[in-house]
Each structure stands twice: as structure tokens, then as C-alpha cells.
Predict the structure.
Amino acid sequence: MVVLEFTRPRRLPFSAFYDLWFDHLVPLLGRLSSDSSAYGYLPASVRDFPDPRAVAGMMTGAGLTGIRYRILAGGIVTVHIGVKQ
């Protein structure tokens, strides 16, 4: 199983820029679109999603083995891999 998720970067200065962009500017720009609710929903869903370590734990709890993950793109994307035997 492969899981691709958006995550929140933890290292400065990228985390500060990301918070400003994703939590403030994206919803503001979304108000100009025909579906502004989507631009508020996306930052909220990423903020509420479990962190990579918690996702790995859930995968283990679901019976997957060999769980590993890699944080990419400056910390905004994580790819998890696990095997069901």
C-alpha cells in the first residue's frame, strides 16, 4: 500500500511561509473563485490530518508491515509504504 499525503512542514523558514500561504493567502484567493469553500476546506483538512508518524502507526494497526515513509518537497508531502501479508 502506498499513501500520499499533504503534511505541514516543521522547519523554519519554510514552515512560516507555508503557514502564511496555505492558511491565509489560499483561502483569500479562493474567495475570488466560484468554489471558495474548497479553498478553506483544503487547509483545514491538512491541518487536522495526523502527522506522518501517526499515519505509520495507523498502518501498523491495520496489519501492514515494513512501514516506511519519506517526507518530501520541503516537508509538504509524505509518501508512506507498507505491505499487507
Summary: The first strand starts at residue 2 and ends at 6. The chain has a mean pLDDT of 89. The chain is about 45% helix and 25% strand. The beta strands are 2-6, 64-72, 77-84.
